[in-house]
Amino acid sequence: MAVQISPSILAADFARLADEAAAVPNADWLHVDVMDYHFVPNLTLGLPVVEALRKATDTPLDCHLMIADPDRWAPQYAEAGAGSVTIHAEAAKAPVRTLREIRSLGARAGLALNPATAVEPYEDLLGEVDMLLLMTVEPGFGGQKFLDVVLPKVRRARELIGRHGGRVWLQVDGGVDAGTIERCAEAGADVFVAGSAVYGASDPVAAIDGLRAAANRAVS
Ligand code: DX5
Ligand code: ZN
Where are the domains of the chain? Predict the structure, then answer.
């Protein structure tokens, strides 16, 4: 699996989202953090913004739903044209049904786990997902410090994925920057979300190139 970089627009200027999407032409995805003040103590954006962003950029949208009722809302993000829709295992009441619905609507289905959620109970669900997202901060805010404590889980997740054919992408999200991306790649992650490290940089394009090169170095 080639390294993929998904800049998080949480760290972008919300008043200029179309420009901010255009500012990262070398991104593989645009990571869109949807927060509802219930699953996490922060509120960001929802479907209308995703629909508008979809029309404003050709870069596929990687929607990360940090919301209390993903079973109800996730399919609508797929219908809105998101290329990938990720739900949290801690929030979903019917993850198998919801993941299947996301796929049936033509999007990639992702399952996210908080730092303290073990990956092993979800092994049997790997066939239902296209991407596993391991949070490397507690979800809710950008700019937090990377949690090294998650790295052993990244390794174990990579092993589980390997045992199931190696098809599932392994994403890390939170505190990923030039100082931490190599450890994540070495542990087995292949899709990297970066908010502050991209949109906080004076040259976002160069920041993405730098992150990609560092991740590739770590696995070569
Ligand atoms: C946190 C979000 C992340 C956030 C990452 O809950 O899921 O996507 O934007 O931001 P950085 O890269 O600044 O940690
Ligand atoms: Zn995110």
Answer: 4-219
